[in-house]
């Protein structure tokens, strides 16, 4: 039996999870609403909220799993990439908890964890598989050869897909995080109402900064002519923007799958919660007879269950770190 406590604190979610023998028994998430009005995460406010949330969140996760803290065998934590102040809170807690209870510590790469979230349920991918990992900070196509052997085959050269959603939301006057709101408004809109450009980027790389600028100019031009333009056309604007972001993502993923010949295809990260992307990957999967893997909603955006499952697989390999571990704000996927 192996009982792992997972801790996630890279950005603006404080989360703790208990994984017992590869099964998730709890996944408690404290989401920080303090950033809503700023259009993005304010690092100093995030680390302060983590400090307030970390102990009650871990207590809740232990209670929800109906275990006693004596039963925990190891502590897994997100070492990065992420915000320095936010990471420090989670890592300091993990070190202190492990030290006090004489437990081994397991470091986890946040981006590995997003991908390894696919090993939580029963519908597990087989290796190798391609994973489109799309979050607020990353947009990557990763060839996953084994649990901790991953190859980056394409990534964004500027903004991430989540940022494209969040920045568009800010332009439209919607709150942060904008992705879920754009998704919601897009449901009833016409995705072909407006056309936004698709960037010409080589290989399997992505770019979203040009799209953001074209949306900004489009909105400025139209609101000059009609001050109620956004209000009157919000659903169509959201549907059209979402349509373009998804087509940029899926065109590259399709190309990568055809070139590598890999037919096990997954999506992961916060943007994989997007309903249009989830439908799109299913349609593409049917077209090419792929085995597609879409995470459950609760494992798309940041959560500690993915840290705990990744920690479990490292525990099986006796892959531990010392108490002198420090956060890494940048950390390549490799
Ligand atoms: O993985 P995540 O929780 O945090 C990072 O590691 O960055 O991803 C957060 C991102 C945000 O940009 C948010 O707007 C986006 O995921 N997101 C969505 C949806 N839900 C979350 N984007 C589009 N549609 C959604 N339904
Ligand atoms: Zn994330």
Question: Which features characterize this protein?
Answer:
single chain, alpha/beta, 9 helices, 10 strands, 19% strand, globular, binds 5'-O-[(R)-(carboxyoxy)(hydroxy)phosphoryl]adenosine, binds zinc ion
Q: Could you provide a short overview of the structure?
A:
With 334 residues, the protein is α/β, with parallel strands linked by helices.
Structural description of this entry:
This protein is an alpha/beta fold and 334 residues long. Helix content is 43%, strand content 19%. It has helices spanning 43-64, 84-101, 110-116, 161-171, 178-186, 209-225, 229-260, 275-288, 305-316, and strands spanning 3-8, 13-20, 23-31, 74-80, 105-109, 129-134, 139-146, 149-155, 264-268, 291-293. The strands form 2 sheets. Strands 3-2-1-4-5 form a 5-stranded mixed beta sheet, with helices on both faces. Helix 7 (229-260) packs parallel to helix 8 (275-288). It is globular, with a radius of gyration of 20 Å. The chain starts with a strand and ends in an 18-residue tail after the last helix. Bound molecules: 5'-O-[(R)-(carboxyoxy)(hydroxy)phosphoryl]adenosine (KG4) and zinc ion (ZN).
